[in-house]
Amino acid sequence: DAGVIQSPRHEVTEMGQEVTLRCKPISGHDYLFWYRQTMMRGLELLIYFNNNVPIDDSGMPEDRFSAKMPNASFSTLKIQPSEPRDSAVYFCASSRQGSGNTIYFGEGSWLTVV
Amino acid sequence: QQQVKQSPQSLIVQKGGISIINCAYENTAFDYFPWYQQFPGKGPALLIAIRPDVSEKKEGRFTISFNKSAKQFSLHIMDSQPGDSATYFCAASTVRNAGNNRKLIWGLGTSLGVNP
Questions:
Q1: Mean pLDDT of chain B
Q2: pLDDT of residue A102
Q3: What contacts B92, CB < 8 A, 6 or more positions away?
Q4: Nearest residue of A to residue B40 by CA position?
Q5: Residue B109 forms contact with A (CB below 8 Å)
Q6: Cβ neighbours around A95 below 10 Å, total
Q7: Residue B9 scores a pLDDT above 90
Q8: B107 touching A, CB under 8 A?
């Protein structure tokens, strides 16, 4: 069974550009999470969805960040405009109701904003 | 406000030794305590988890010890191997009566190095 699939794996962009990160959760999972990981702040939950509906977006740092989940098999995290301080690894993760709280992570999208 | 405090930040042990990582939490409503393991370039993966109705859970060389009164839990890695070198995260959440709340509160991680 395929795991959580993220793209791109690596992105280098210039400050001010729009960045779109993509995620395909594990089939059958009804929760989808977006995390950001940095050395200074560790793992931060940005937003999560249940059945494609955003449940908690309190971790989204500011209006430059937005996330959508148009269907059960696809989600995007968009940063517009990007800034150097957005440089981080962004993880998408998914889980299934009834599986406890086990969360399955993708391999991450490594974002560098110069 | 960090609700789960993890220590140490980094740890180096010799092959065959015991690695111990500690976490403390504040919210007494937490009832699910997982440990995740992350290798460089990969996402975290669930290693082992415990509920507060038991004081210890063992899976192979990995053991979680849980102290409800002290609000602390720890990961013990017995006979540590170079392949165990990774970053370890503790976390906590509520599962019972959670509704659709699936929010894990994470520690900041411990970088473990096991010397051959």
A1: 92
A2: 86
A3: B3, B4, B23, B25, B27, B30, B32, B33, B104, B105
A4: A107
A5: yes
A6: 22
A7: yes
A8: yes
